[in-house]
């Protein structure tokens, strides 16, 4: 049974022309004030609980950091972030309604207490996509939202590093081995943001995480969105009660076979229906014609 229109959350507003222009130029945008102070505190506490559980079980990395995949399955309290109305509109503005979350993670990086061995970590998301798709530039295929639960308004706090505009560049200069000392790519910057801000970025942008030698523990939650015909990297282990139809679509709990995931039946896709009800369908993403 479908959720009544009055009970459904709003899917958010479409990307503005300015946001789209900046995103297409730079490959990322910072969205300020997505989460309120109360929301930041709520989600940070939830992430802290997961961190403490892993610490107690001896499952942290050697530097006491945690990079936990499958964010919602790992921390059910994070479910509302799947389609937060202040940022979700950016996702469907870029990719349309036939989307799901194929990759997600929550990150906790305490301050480093000793110098970390060098490793060249600059990369594009997508793994084998960047070797096996024959095009220049590579197709976008997915976008990602990073919610910041800690203050990264200054550099050196484990900031998200990017090379603006590099999302249309298939290759950057790098060392023969990742452990060989090598300078950051030309034009690289550390993106600064306040707790509660979000960063929306193209998976193709060349990026890395800076080392955190500050006094602030870096905390963030990341969701990668792609087309539903791209197979998910993770699946929900449980059918979490209380998820909305759109949230069920995003975590792969929506019923349907391969044709359904390819978008042949738009009337059965929750986000399509929600955008239609709110007169937000983009003609650039029409249903497939038989």
TrEMBL record:
<dbReference type="GO" id="GO:0016706">
    <property type="term" value="F:2-oxoglutarate-dependent dioxygenase activity"/>
</dbReference>
<dbReference type="GO" id="GO:0005506">
    <property type="term" value="F:iron ion binding"/>
</dbReference>
<dbReference type="Pfam" id="PF05721">
    <property type="entry name" value="PhyH"/>
</dbReference>
<dbReference type="InterPro" id="IPR008775">
    <property type="entry name" value="Phytyl_CoA_dOase-like"/>
</dbReference>
<protein>
    <recommendedName>
        <fullName>Phytanoyl-CoA dioxygenase</fullName>
    </recommendedName>
</protein>
């Amino acid at each position: 049974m479908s959720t009544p229109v009055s009970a459904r959350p709003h899917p958010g507003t479409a990307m503005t022309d300015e946001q789209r222009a900046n995103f297409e130029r730079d490959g990322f945008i910072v969205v300020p004030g997505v989460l309120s102070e109360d929301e930041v505190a709520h989600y940070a506490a939830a992430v802290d609980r997961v961190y403490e559980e892993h610490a107690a079980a001896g499952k942290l990395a050697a530097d006491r950091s945690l990079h936990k995949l499958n964010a919602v399955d790992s921390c059910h309290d994070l479910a509302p972030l799947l389609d937060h109305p202040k940022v979700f509109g950016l996702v469907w503005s870029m990719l349309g309604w036939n989307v799901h979350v194929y990759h997600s993670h929550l990150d906790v990086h305490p301050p480093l207490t000793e110098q970390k061995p060098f490793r060249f970590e600059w990369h594009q998301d997508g793994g084998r996509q960047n070797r096996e798709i024959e095009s220049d530039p590579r197709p976008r295929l997915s976008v990602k939202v990073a919610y910041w639960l800690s203050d990264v308004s200054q550099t050196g706090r484990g900031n998200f590093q990017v090379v603006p505009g590099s999302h249309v560049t298939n290759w950057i200069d790098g060392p023969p081995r990742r452990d060989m000392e090598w300078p950051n790519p030309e034009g690289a910057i550390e993106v600064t943001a306040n707790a509660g801000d979000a960063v929306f970025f193209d998976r193709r942008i060349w990026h890395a995480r800076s080392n955190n030698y500050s006094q602030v523990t870096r905390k963030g939650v990341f969701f990668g969105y792609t087309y539903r015909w791209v197979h998910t990297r993770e699946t929900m282990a449980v059918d979490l009660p209380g998820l909305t139809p759109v949230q069920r679509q995003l975590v792969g709990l929506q019923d349907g076979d391969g044709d359904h995931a390819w978008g042949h039946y738009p009337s059965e896709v929750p986000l399509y229906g929600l955008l239609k009800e709110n007169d937000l369908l983009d003609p650039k993403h029409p249903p497939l014609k038989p």
